[in-house]
Protein: Leucine rich repeat containing 3B
Organism: Cynoglossus semilaevis
Amino acid sequence: MTLLDVWLSRSIPMCLLLQSLVLMALCFPSASMCPKGCICLRDSHLHGLNVTCSHSRLKEIPPSLPIDTVLLRLDHNHIGAVPDQIFRGLRILRELNLSYNAIEHLEEAAFAGIEATLQLLDLSHNRITSVHKDAFSRLKARVIVNDNPWHCDCTLQQAISGMAHNHEAAARVLCRSSELLDQEGRPFLAVDTDLCNLAKRTTDYAMLVTMFGWFAMVISYVVYYVRQNQEDARRHLEYLKSLPSKPKKPDEADDISTVV
Ligand SMILES: *[C@@H]1O[C@H](CO)[C@@H](O)[C@H](O)[C@H]1NC(C)=O
Ligand SMILES: *[C@@H]1O[C@H](CO)[C@@H](O)[C@H](O)[C@H]1NC(C)=O
């Protein structure tokens, strides 16, 4: 084997490896690239990136945001949903502005992974009618939720009471629709009915009625059974009486007297 052979046998795999690495880098743009339609400014005060994607006609949240994003502005776009865990990995995200979009619903894991660092979350001027009851529960951030067509029900009540700064947020939640007609157009906080208890009371009544039904059935069965047995016992006794009398042992006589 010549020296050239040895060199070739080692360098060809190296070349292939390098080539595939370059291809991979091209296919999966690194997480720190600025998404299309956004401006990413490094800010020494922030110790991270100031990412602005406002007014960019975005239909969805860019999937690969720079991991050192501190401020993220996605306002004035056409974003309709916040996919589960979309912000996971943004370990130093402090402010998230999703105002003036078309979001309709928030799932439990919408803000998963950024609960500890996020300080401000603007969801105002969207189309949110409902959120999962735990969508905000782990967030420490101040949440802004005004100007959404809220549907006031038990789930919303649970979601709002799970917010750290729930009073301010709840004060600005207006019910566009509600389980109770007279609450439409009113601030959520002015709704003095416990909407969850209302639902609970309804199920309680249903439960009571069902239980009563079962109880009545059991009672009527017992009554029927006892009647039937009385009849049987009487017939049995008559049969015994009709038998030709023969000398009985004392204990047998006792038995019959107990039955009677
Ligand atoms: C972030 O960048 C935008 C422009 O892209 C600018 O208007 C804004 O003031 C910046 N915010 C901070 C806190 O530097
Ligand atoms: C979010 O963006 C909107 C639109 O630019 C702005 O009016 C609002 O003040 C921002 N929210 C926060 C909390 O800065």
The two ends are 115 Å apart (CA to CA). Residues 21-31, 256-260 have pLDDT under 50 and may be disordered. Helices lie at 3-27, 154-161, 166-171, 195-242, 250-259.
